[in-house]
Structure formats: structure tokens, C-alpha cells
Amino acid sequence: MSTDEAIPQEAYGEAIARPESAFADHRLRVMEPAIDPERGAPVVTLGRYAASYRLIDPFWVSPPLAVRCYLQQPPDLVGRYRALAAYLGDRTRSFPGLVPMELIEKGIQVRIGAIGRTWEPIVVHPWVPGRRLDVVVREAIANGSAGHVLPALRERLVALARFLEDAGIAHGDVEPANLIVGEDGGLTLVDADGMVVPVLVGRPTVEELTPHWRHPRRPERADLALDRFPFIVLWVTLLVLERAPELLVGRPEAPDGRLLFLADDLAAPERSLLFTRTERIAGASGWTHALAELARGDYAAVPALAAFAALPVTDRPAPEAVAWPVTDHRVEVDAGADAGTGVEADAGGGPESGDGVAEGAGVAADPWTGSIEATELPSDGTVADAEASSGPDDPWMT
After folding, report:
1. Euclidean distance between the first and the last CA atom of the chain, given in angstroms as a whole number
2. Torsion (CA) 233, 311, 223, 166 in degrees, nearest 10
């Protein structure tokens, strides 16, 4: 019987280490957990709600699986996944951008202190090979391939967003940490805990989407437009970095994969140094201005990404030149811990990546061919020098 109490990760780790007695499902009982060689324990990634593990068939007959074990169950977990299963049907099998998720109510048996042994629900899905989107973007900028990798990623974002719109689905937690880039360059969304389908519209949102990807006036009730603004922010970010990759210099890797725009930028574009700077970049200024207008406007007015990308946007008039120093944002960030997606990823390029995502050292073949810190503007129009913050007020740490 499931408990409503929080379950420590250690309880799951102890159970996962003995799959033959932990699982009721025969498929999982005959598999083995991936082991961290340094700790000698199952590889785990902790998110907002779940601990994610990878299971491997010791005989390599069956493909690897990802198992999400819930430290704290999201509201109405079982009811939501039943609704998703009823609506999605074969849609996840007809488009590679979604992963088929299976909720097993009698999933894993764990031992919890005075409560004793209890069966808890789990979500199982195929292990998704690839790397987090933010990792791919940083690598492309570092090796000089941003000019063709980032445009290809933007095209694939449009295709993925269009599919979700046409299918009547909102993922509910679109951010780079939940977007996995495969070896063929394709995009796959992982972590369906916040997914919305028509029958779930109007219910309270489940995922507390990282504020750096959320519209400032997004409602607390779920709807099918939840993904529109984060998709647009990400699309514009890739466009800006294609034109000005130096903007990523000094920005540390973060658990949610944030790249440029922060919550403060989106909440008040008119006071954002980053928006001021990006609206001066040739080939991107009109798009960043359009993003700023959406951030200032009503949530209901945000268009689908395909419609936004098709707008007849032109560059803004070039203002007088301003000297822009590079602000150093290098701080210590534990990028291996995910911000709620269950993404088993070392965002710095470690050996494991993805909510069930296998990270390799690199891609065998090239699949792509075919706020800066708040700083006041002095009266003379130049940017005041500012020390990089590494303390608790650093926006990259929140």
C-alpha cells in the first residue's frame, strides 16, 4: 500500500540494488541497476519529485529502462497518468519527440522506518540516449560549430512544438534539462509529470516550471498553451547565441540548463541589461524585442512557436555604440543534480545524461549538416563595472 509520506532516496537505493525482490513486474525483476563505480551504489539523479535510476538487461536482450521513484508524490499521480495513457494512446510511438511512459501502481517495495515495507508507484520508460540540449549548445559554441548546429536545433524545436500543438498536448516543463538531443540531432522531451491533455485542463499545474522559462503572468491552472512561452524563449536564445556566442562566456552550467535569459529579465525587460544588449545584435535584435513584448504582455496573447517564428521580424534601428564588458559569472554549481526532471545528467559532460539519458563522450557523426547580472547604466551611457557574484544572491544559483 502506498504512503503519502515523503520517502528518503536511500530507501529507494536500497531496494533498487536488489531488483529481484524490489519489483513486482517481471521485466524489471530480471534487470540490474547501473552502478556508480565510485560509490558502488546504483546511479541516481534527484529531481523535485523523483529519484531516477537506469536498469540494464545483463544479457542485453532488452533495451535499458529508466525508472522514476517518487520521493514525494505529485498531486493525483495515478489519476493523471491514467488520463495521459487514455489520451495519448499510440501518439508517443508515432513521433520520436515523446517517450512512452508507463505508470506501475504496484511498482517498487521499499522499507520506510516505522512504517515498514510498502509498495510505491513508479513510472517506467525507455532509456533515452543522448545529451541535454544545454550541453550540446555549449559544446557547439566551444568547438565553433554553432553556426550550423544552433539553426538546426531551432528548426527541430519548431517541429516538436508544432507536433505538441497539433496533438493537443502540453509537456508542462519545457527547459533544456528536459530536452535530449539524440545522435541524429532529434529532440526528445523527458519527464511527463507535468504533462497536460484536454481532460486535465483547468486542474492545478503540477510542475513548478523554473521561473527562467515561465511567462511572468502564467496562471496556476493547467492549459494547453503552457509550452508556448518557454519554447519561444529557447528559440530566441538559440538565435541570439548563433549571432553572438560570446554571450555565453562566463555563464556557468545550471541544473535546469538555463543559458541566457533569467526570470528578472523576463519580468522587466525594460530594466534588463541583457535585453538592452541583445536588441543591438544584428540578425537578432528584432526577435529579442518581440520576446520582450511577449514577456510584458498577457499570457493569453503568446502565440505558438511556429507562428512566432514565421513573423515578419526585422532588425531594430542600430543605436549608438556602447562598450559592453564581459561580466564573469563563474560560480560553483552542482550541474549534476537536476532541477526536478529526473534527468540523470552531468551537464558538464559527464558519463551519464538524461531522465534515462545515456551520455556519450561525443557524437560519432555530425547530425547537423544537411540576464547578464543586473547593472545600472550610468548617465554617460556606458556600463558600470560589476563584480561577479558567487554568493546566495547570484541569479544563477536560484
Report:
1. 36
2. -110
